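Researcher: For the record, we're logging two predictions in this thread. I'll number them. Prediction 1 follows.
Model: Prediction 1, sequence and structure:
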Amino acid sequence: MDDKYRRLIDQLVNQTISKEDFDRLQDAFEHDADLRREYVALLGLCESLGEIALEDAAFPVDSERKTTTATTRSNDTSASHETPTAPARPRFTSMRFAIAATAWFLLIGSFAFWLGQWNQSRLVEDMVTDGETSESRIAGHATLRRMVSLQWPDDSKRYLTGDVLPNGPLVFDSGLAEIDFFCGATLIVEGPASLEIESDWSVFVSAGRLRASVPPAARGFVLKTVESEIIDLGTEFAVEVKTDNVRVEVIDGEVALRGGEHDGKHLVTGESASLKGTPSDTSVIEGLSTMIELDQRHQEAEADGYRRWIEHSTELRSDDRMIAHFAIAEGIRERIVPNAALTGQRFDGLMVGPVGITDGRFGPESLGLEFDRPGSRVRTRIDGEFQAFTFTCWVRIDSLKHRYNALFMGDGYETGEPHWQIRDDGSLMFSVMVDDTQQSEHFSEIDQQMVQTAGLHRLYYTEPFWDISNSGQWFHLAAVYDPANRRVSQYVNGKQVASEAIPDRFHITTLRIGAAEIGNWGQPFRETPWFAVRNLDGTIDELTIFNAALSEEEVGHLYERGKPLGY
């Protein structure tokens, strides 16, 4: 064995190995067959040494001598006064040998365990510090709470409703944005606007009109402009920033000004000042939306989006390629989730367990189904044979609390049946069972180890599209299984994020669904009450299945016609 790998194993056992060195050791075992053979031989040797060591350690120990030594030490007298018997030195040597052999045994055993548990170590390696799990962290200072008719410049960073805003620019050409800073201050900003988020307590404004509402908990919030700074002292105020003019007006409360010609001046309710340019007689707040007006405009925009989606959904139902269309957002009859496709009521879904009914992606105008408790699910049965699959849905993910989180799952996962899920790292995964009578073994790129599975199938993954900062946001997801062209493609918000060829071994042309579930998985073991806990901690408000491989343009069209406000 190469000395450098022996040193790496020593570091592993001593818990001083770096992530880079552990990766290097793992890669060596994966790609070097000779090294693996040497490892196996060394493992056998160490097992033998361990057995010898244990046999030696089983020799009887002089209990009287052990007691005497302990007593001598407890009385703080010198152990050197005690004369060892003849067998003492050989016994000490044997014990040293036992310790050394056992250490090597544990060394190799530890590495075998680490190798076998590589998947788990990969998932948590960045979250474990000194044996304790660290907290998840997100960089940011504010949240884009709501937006109405926001238009972004082509070259600017775009955000979605609910996004955490990091330090940096926030630029938009028109529309309204409501921004909640983590200190508690709220800004209603009217475009065109250009802001620089600096911290939880400060923002630099170079263009735009805005209304700032600052509660007592956020007292001290600072709004900066080119000429001066506005420091809140518990107030609501308005600011207008143009190229040649900057004005501030206090709506209620008090602000302090710092810098420029008004340095040190305080403004109270009803007072205003021009911080740059020529003073104006017009009010800064004239025409600027209030919180109530923003609420009204937001509700109107959601209602309009919902009406447009209803029109689109009605048109969509005439597509004879559609297997099922669960237009959850449109309504539910008691516990029945209607299938709005031409295939009719025979493919209706049934709400089972504690499924929650909540607002959909269009707010109170629409409905969504929550699956946040293990027993919640929507069951359906879709009989027949199909030539291709396209699955699409609108989903809001609150957390990924299970290893696998269900979107749509065939109950028994039998030949030809699909599984569509989200892995706990935020990646999409889609598969179709090719032969449920076979046992399959393959090297998992995700798990970085050989895995055995019941039945012959292949998992098709995307890169992670979701993390905790996206909690509560709506996503349009799509998976296209195209046997004719031997390809699986997956999409997020109308954009293709993965496309992979179907290998010959995993090619199947006759597809089925049968008994299946939305938002969970049934009882795949049949003979026992146990079931895999894969309920989605989130909300689905539309799910559609096609007997066709939709093109990228068609998937993009579904996203554009169905996207909610702020997308």
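Researcher: Logged. Prediction 2.
Model: Prediction 2, sequence and structure:
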Amino acid sequence: MRVGIDTGGTFTDFVFFDGKNLFTHKVSSTPSDPSEAIMSGLIDIIGNRLSNFDVVHGTTVATNSLLERKGAVIALVTTDGFQDVIEIGRQNRDSLYDVFWQAHQPLVEKELRFGITERTTYQGKVLSRVSKDQLEELFSKLKRLNVEGVAISFLHSYANPTNEKIVAEHLNPLGVPISASSQILPEFREYERTSTVVANSYLLPKVKLYMDSLSSEISSISDSSCDLSVMQSNGGIISPEKAGDEPVRILLSGPAGGVVGSFNIAASMGYERIITYDMGGTSTDVSLCNGGIDFTTETEIDGIPISVPMIDVTTIGAGGGSIAHCDVGGALKLGPKSAGADPGPVCYGKGDELTVTDAHVALGRIDTEWFLGGRMKISKQRSEIALEKLAREMKLPLNKGGLGQVLLDLAEGVIRVANANMERALRSVSIERGYDPRDFAMVSFGGAGGLHACELARNIETKKVVFPRSPGVLSALGMLMADSFKDYSVTVFLAGALATAEALEGRFIDLERKALADFQSGVRTSSYHEQISFKRFLDARYKRQAHELTIPYTKNFIGVFHRAHKKAFGYMKTGDGVEVVTIRVRAVAKKRKIKLPKLTNEKIDIYPQKKKIIFEGRQISVATYKREEFYCGFAFTGPSLILENTSTIFVPPDYKCAVDDWGNIEASAY
């Protein structure tokens, strides 16, 4: 049995696959201790004993700790004179013309940043070693301060980590986790490298405690045949031990699972150019795949640069639980604050602030008797009361008795504001990067995505929308489709006559040996059917350029770079020398692929129920289907609502839909 678990801000999703059948499950998340929801969901489905299980988990523990600034109290040790690099940053600012703009506070207080006299050149030559007296003094200070972790980042340690290793070994008796930049990110650009290793150290104690606790709890109800893995932000999986040591690699593990799942499903349908659209309870994640999953090493999370490879995902604070409110000027605003799992949307029975979900309930687009397949009852009356409360705050004229047109317009206004926010995100990954959305299919998933997808697709002129089977748990399914892999890199600075295939070969082999040693010590091989393979990449640029392009490595990498540069920037300079800045290796152990069960071809009579909802300011009649009744080849048109255990899909009047062999719905505009 293989189990994918995605912990979200509102729900924790489960997918169980036994080789033939797929089962899904959702439980409310438990933000104070995410493992409670995980154990509850596992026991709900398979009882108190696990045997021969393969569990893959995507977690928000690291992300939430960073966003809420609830990490550890850590110290930063740098080359003397560079203690404040994480606060100085770079000259760019988020809002260039905002006179009230304030920089994000660094994760390490000024009093906990320490400089050490040492120096290594960019070529790896040690000019000044660390003195024993300074180490003794540093050790005493850190012991007195009772720090919970230490981050070490020296100049040019990517070229020679000797001084970092000396300091790390000397501080080991402190008994706290130590993160060295030469281990976490052996690349140049001291600001991004320091920021990344600081984030790793900041998150490490809490994430490691969570990983150890979850491993222990799962072990308590399982035998030695069970295996637990954790989803990384780059779309691969690693052991919980490695995730605990390098939490900076799992910051976007949930969204990564969704991209992996949607790309695999879309590829099986013949679509390899897709825009993924994942709307959950607290946020919306979008990504563009142009024939493959895109990666980036330039991610910023809440003002903190993180330079480890991640799937290129744009996240905004717009989800089903996003709270609608009135700003100081009287305008309707949405998010980024979310009702989360507790108290949740007003219709759940606890909260009192209107959310996107409540707007859908008030408009009739969510069936109150079929939420989570009927397992959870929600209240339309409570949503209407919250709607009226917001209308009064906005000083809107209210009719007496019933849900008047003003309130219905306000509910649709909430939906339009949510759509506008999400449309901007979709445009940012497509049009603003030179891609035409008309050339792509949109893959919609997440618990709330199906209610907005067709309207968003129409707005950006995407012709096709794919609704995968069980879209509300697709991120958890994607985790079961992911291979085990880890990324390795090192900055080399090879230019001109030195940038040859022969010179690079030895550097690549060194990284591959390191990767092989890591896999042999930290990955169980029972779930894998192939030997570990390696993919090579390099970051290259023209001389005197400030930034690089990452390209696949071939012996003719010079020509590959010229063509990639022309595609990205519209020109190439074949007469200029090419400099190889950083080499990268991805070590991959492929998992046994999941063969999703197909729907029956047997045609049955499907009789949808009729339901009244509000759409574009008027009441319309929609056909309401239960997705579990669909068969391969079934076709229908909008307006319609499709109800299922993990989500609700709204198909507007101008769309037609068809169901494929695997139960995916393909919606097309007339």
